[in-house]
Amino acid sequence: MSPNTWVIEMPSQKSCSHPYPRRISPYRTPSLNRDAFTRDSPAAATSGPSTRSHNHPVFEDIRTILSVLKASGLMPIYEQVSNYEVGPPTKTNEFYSFFVRGVVHALTIFNVYSLFTPISAQLFYSYRETDNVNQWIELLLCILTYTLTVFVCARNTKSMLRIMNEILQLDEEVRKQFGANLNQNFGFSVKFLVGIAACQTYIIVLKIYAVDGVITPPSYILLAFYAVQNGLTATYIVFASALLRIVYIRFHFINQLLNGYTYGQQQKRKGGGGGGRRHRGNGQHHPTPNPAIMEHFPEDSLFIYRMHNKLLRIYKGINDCCNLILVSFLGYSFYTVTTNCYNLFVQITAKGMVSPNILQWCFAWLCLHVSLLALLSRSCGLTTREANATSQILSRVYASSREYQNIIDKFLTKSIKQEVQFTAYGFFAIDNSTLFKIFSAVTTYLVILIQFKQLEDSKVEDPEPDQT
Amino acid sequence: MFRPSGSGFRQKLVGFTLKGALYGSWILGIFPFTYDSWTRKLHRSKWLIAYGLVLTTVLVALVWTNDTETETPMRMEVFHRNPLAEQVNGIHDIQSLFTVAFILLRGYWKSGDIERIFNELLDLQHRHFRHYPLEDCCSFDRFVVYKGVSVAVEFISMVILELGMSPNFSQQLLVGVTSLCLMLLGVLLGASHFHLAVVFIYRYVWIINRDLLRLANELADGKEVSSDRVDYLLGLYHRLLNINTRLSDIYDYQMVLVMASFLIANVMGIYFFIIYTISLHKDWDYMILFVIPQAMIINMFDFCLSIAVCDLAERTGRQTSTILKLFNDIEKLDKKLDRSITEFALFCSHRRLKFRHCGLFYVNYEMGFRMAITSFLYLLFLIQFDFWNL
């Protein structure tokens, strides 16, 4: 049960999701399924017969990250049915993902075992007891997060495919209606992948250099798997951000379309670019072929409303898929940032025993996690803002006649106090403010930890008062 | 699809849980109503109120006179080591006693309102929702069963905790523990009345949502939909929201107290646990491994459940607005129908299905998360205050 589910538990979905034959739309596009709330809509509408063969793979923008996730069993290795549809994976591929997940769980059990037995003791070499405990907890949290990720991904295979299909279907409609191709360069995902890999390698090398004595094979396995787990969890976060970015582009597109109808834009067109206030509407794809006229507005607005509903549904779907993973990742990330800040503080304030190794280690972790947090909260914030901006833009639409006013009001009345949010299991909203909240929490806990340290020190220095 | 056999069992389980809650409440004297099956109405009974008052007084007196738990060696050890724990424990004891008394007295005091609300719910069920198929609402069944299980498990865990902490059994101890646990059961059942009422409201809202969705589907398929149906649903929705507001007004103090006592119990439990294991350097025996953790886990489960129910209802209320958005892109909408839907949308955006206790906070996951974080912070502060003793 996920908290943000849009799904209303419809009775016997199979029979209810298509109770009636599909409407034949009077205008250009075939109608979408309106059962936006039923649990499993059919994999993809068979409308829109794509006669062309698969000349380009779907989701090409994020294929690097997708291939990493597919190889690690986190994403299903789907089959491409057509340009705008993906199908479920073949038996062999499904078995491969299953096998990889099994190996991961086996390794996890082995690691937990070695964490709880003295096998891995040599990895915890620090000067003080608390540091070791912290690192130990960090490892355990990482294992937990990754295991949860694998479980959730395995459970959400179908809904992930459904989301992808919905995105593709939406793209197809946009292409049919406006001839626009909504692809964009997702260079950031590749950069992040490289960064994550480099960071993890660096951390492992640091760790290996820091351990004195010969490292036993179990410790090597533990370390390597730890790095892989960290890397894959981080990759998944990047993937979620990329998905959100995809949704953002779609939202942005319909907002641009609407923006073309706003008063300012109309004025500008009449006056030959006199306004110059809003440049967003004049993006690469020009919204309407004949800019000065509102005659397409009723038709376009219906399309836009439907797109908006679909996009919101996709947005919620992504949220439902990533809910638990995000919560555990944010918790893990918070813990890591806090302990590393604390370690840095201890290193800097300790007199005379600054170890460059630990400093580098802390900086590497901080960089990795802070950049991931920033990426995640930025993507969520952008998408949320764009989703909420639609009604703002719509309220500026220049509606000269009564008919248009009705169309606009129809949307606006239903959007009053209906802000969408990307939440972490309903616990808190993830947007730009999350970053701020996390850092204020880190500060609070840092202060508490430092206070504890001072108490501990004073306890060691003073003789114990009369205690039994 | 392959539900028939399973659903029968589930339905039976739900029915059994509801009946169990009803009879349990009657026996413990916290449900002072009699049901008249002819008029389908609940009536307040003075005799049941008197019975409840007498029973509770007897139980409190029994607990008071047979109070043996303070002498258990484990507690004495902890308290000797850590005087702060004793003080906090004292506060918690007083708070619990106050909670018990308050829940019962307020329940009797407001019984007239409660009667009206329950009668209205019965009326809604009989007049309007009887014709809808109800067996598909899985969350309803799940939450009812969870609640039943949680009350039962909480009772058992309390018995285990009390008996497990005292090494020597005596008749006095058994009497004291039994009456204490019965008192606790009364409180839990009293809280579960609110919980069950919320689940019922949730189910009705869910049915309204389903009907709205069906209307949207019909419209999309080009069928005619009369605006009366939307108006009818709006009327039902309005009544449900009214009931909800009144219900949370009646139960707000009780729920706040129960939540507070759960939170304090959890913080205290973990604190005791830390003192016992770390500062007293005890060996890991069955006490540490089983008795204390199970009590804490069950407490947390119950706390989460009480929040999850309210969150579920709130989410379902939000879904209504989202479903209404689906009416946006229907081209030729009848003027009258359009107006009805707009009215519904405006109503939804201005009045939400939300649970606000005493005007202090809304009950949902966000608040639950904050509460959990705050209790963790309090735990840290407690440990810091008493660091010298650790």
TrEMBL record, chain A:
Keywords: Cell membrane, Membrane, Receptor, Transducer, Transmembrane, Transmembrane helix. GO terms for cellular component: axon; dendrite; neuronal cell body; plasma membrane. InterPro entries: 7TM_chemorcpt. Residues 1-56, 268-292 are annotated as: Disordered. The keyword Cell membrane applies. One of its GO terms (biological process) is chemosensory behavior. Gustatory receptor which mediates acceptance or avoidance behavior, depending on its substrates. Belongs to the insect chemoreceptor superfamily. Gustatory receptor (GR) family. This is Gustatory receptor. It comes from Drosophila kikkawai. The gene is Gr32a.
UniProtKB/TrEMBL annotation, chain B:
Keywords: Cell membrane, Membrane, Receptor, Transducer, Transmembrane, Transmembrane helix. GO terms for biological process: signal transduction. The keyword Lipid metabolism does not apply. The keyword Ribonucleoprotein does not apply. It comes from the Eukaryota. One of its GO terms (molecular function) is sweet taste receptor activity. Its main location: membrane. The chain crosses the membrane at residues 12-35, 47-66, 143-161, 173-205, 256-280, 286-310, 360-383. It is a multi-pass membrane protein. GO terms for cellular component: axon; dendrite; neuronal cell body; plasma membrane. It is found in: Cell membrane. Gustatory receptor which mediates acceptance or avoidance behavior, depending on its substrates. Belongs to the insect chemoreceptor superfamily. Gustatory receptor (GR) family. This is Gustatory receptor. It comes from Drosophila kikkawai (Fruit fly).
